[in-house]
């Protein structure tokens, strides 16, 4: 039976608070304690996540595969991305314009769900000038990558894709720097900063 927004909200309430009561205190909140415990359990699967990334390297030998997991987020993350590509421009620029794009696979450590989304980084010379996040439907060039990543996560971890309409459900919780009314289930289950991937 598919997991519902209500089920997921009851799960994430165990790990994220709706207030700032513990801000600035040495004492950890019960939610933060549970979050750290969840990561301790999840890290037992890190070798399996590395196997996933090795398999992606075999499937996509011409692309870069990166491990983007950060334990402040609630998910394992991997990236599959291109080399920087020049961007054509009619303007005379001192610095050349370029971009690269990729797909990020996220497996939640809090619930048996995953998501896949796209990213594009734009540069002027070496300076990052824009980061764009793409959710369903992904641009055509990202779709095949996303499908392969999704199939591999499903096969290896038995997780189900979190539908976008559920992922966008607003929740009354604080997740890192996201606060209501901006906070969504996506933030609580995966990451509060989807554009913040090591590049």
**Secondary-structure element sequence?**
HHHEEEEEEHEHH
Q: State the helicity in percent bands.
A: 25-40%
Q: What is the gyration radius calculated from CA atoms?
A: 18 Å
**Beta-sheet strand percentage?**
15-25%
* Total number of helices: 6
Mean pLDDT: 94
What's the end-to-end separation, in Å? 38 Å
Unreliable segments of 5+ consecutive residues: none
Write down how many β-strands occur, each being a DSSP E stretch of 2 or more residues: 7
- Main β-sheet: number of strands, strand sense, barrel status? 7 strands, mixed
Silhouette: globular
Structural class: alpha+beta
Describe the structure using short key phrases.
globular, about 200 residues, about 30% helix, seven-stranded mixed β-sheet, alpha+beta
What is shown here, in short?
With 199 residues, this protein is of the alpha+beta class.
Task: Characterize the structure shown.
- The protein contains six helices and seven strands.
- With 199 residues, the chain is of the alpha+beta class.
- It has a domain at 5-15 and 30-87 and 95-163.
- Strands 1, 2, 3, 4, 5, 6 and 7 form a seven-stranded mixed β-sheet that branches.
- A hairpin with a 4-residue loop joins β4 (97-108) and β5 (113-124).
- It is globular, with a radius of gyration of 18 Å.
- The N and C termini lie far apart (38 Å).
- 29% of the residues are buried.
Reconstruct the topology from this structure.
Blueprint: H1 5-12, H2 30-42, H3 46-59, E1 64-67, E2 75-81, E3 85-86, E4 97-108, E5 113-124, E6 127-134, H4 140-157, E7 160-161, H5 164-167, H6 185-189
Parallel strand pairs: 5-7
Antiparallel strand pairs: 1-2, 2-4, 3-4, 4-5, 5-6
């Amino acid at each position: 039976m598919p997991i519902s927004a209500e089920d997921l909200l009851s799960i994430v309430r165990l790990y994220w608070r709706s207030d700032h009561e513990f801000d600035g205190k040495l004492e950890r909140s019960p939610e933060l304690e549970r979050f750290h415990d969840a990561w301790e359990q999840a890290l037992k699967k890190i070798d399996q996540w590395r196997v996933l990334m090795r398999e992606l390297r075999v499937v996509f030998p011409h692309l870069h595969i990166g491990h983007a997991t950060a334990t402040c987020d609630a998910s394992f993350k991997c990236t599959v991305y291109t080399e920087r590509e020049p961007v054509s421009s009619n303007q005379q620029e001192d610095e050349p314009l370029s971009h690269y794009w990729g797909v990020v696979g996220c497996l939640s450590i809090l619930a048996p769900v995953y998501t896949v989304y796209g990213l594009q980084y734009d540069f002027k010379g070496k300076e990052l000038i824009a980061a764009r996040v793409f959710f369903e439907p992904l641009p055509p060039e990202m779709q095949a990558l996303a499908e392969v990543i999704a199939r591999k996560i499903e096969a290896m971890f038995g997780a189900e894709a979190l539908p976008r309409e559920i992922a966008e459900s607003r929740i009354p919780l604080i997740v890192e720097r996201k606060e209501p009314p901006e906070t969504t289930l996506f933030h609580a289950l995966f990451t509060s900063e989807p554009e913040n991937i090591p590049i």
